[in-house]
Amino acid sequence: MSGFAHDNIRTLEVDVCSSESIEAAVRRIIEGCGRIDIVVSNAGVGAFGPILDVSVDKARAAFDTNYFGSHRLAQAVLPHMFQRRSGKFVLVGSIAGLIPVPWNGTYASSKAALHTLADVLSTNAPRLTFKS
User: Fold this and answer.
1) Which family does it belong to (predicted)?
2) CA-CA distance, 114 to 94, in Å (whole number)?
3) Which domain, by its residues, includes 102?
4) Within a domain: residue 14?
5) Ranges assigned E (strand) in the chain
6) What backbone torsions phi and psi does residue 88 show, to the nearest 5 degrees?
7) Do 67 and 19 meet the contact criterion of CB atoms below 8 Å apart?
8) Is the distance from CB of 111 to CB of 96 less than 8 angstroms?
């Protein structure tokens, strides 16, 4: 991916539905750069339609990407940041997780779960906060 003004910014495509893909990416970054400074978890997929028409498989796939992907990423990246006592972990949610609308229940539910994950990580900030 191009378009960044600084040479020290790297992007890496990762399959957030695969622990192996995430772990391989984290290893590659740590081996190549020595550390991870910031992670932006921005993966998301839709699952739109009336709840009764959205299959459980489609709902499960939405949750796998929208919630469990960030959960997996947190488990893989945060221990490295904790060890260094430095880093930023950014979760990108959606207003849909706070204000659901018709035909958006499955997506909204998955994003609400992501918001809760962010709240839990933030609530534990005294334990997670890095000090210089």
Assistant:
1) Belongs to the short-chain dehydrogenases/reductases (SDR) family.
2) 9
3) 19-128
4) no
5) 38-41, 88-91
6) -125, 135
7) no
8) yes
Predicted pLDDT of residue 35: 93
**11-52 pLDDT per residue, tens:** 788 999 999 999 999 999 999 999 999 999 999 999 999 999
The residues that are catalytic are 107
Handedness of CA 11, 17, 19, 24 (dihedral sign): negative
- Say whether 60 sits in a helix, a strand or coil: helix
pLDDT digit string (tens) for 72-122? 999 999 999 989 988 999 999 999 999 988 999 999 999 999 999 999 988
| Cβ(18)–Cβ(63) below 8 Å | no
Output the CA angle 13-72-33, nearest 5 degrees.
50
Give a yes or no: residue 78 inside a domain: yes
Closest C-alpha to 22, from 61, 78, 62: 78
Cα 86 from Cα 65, distance rounded (Å): 26
**What pLDDT is stored for residue 43 in this prediction?**
92
Max Cα–Cα distance, the chain, nearest Å = 52
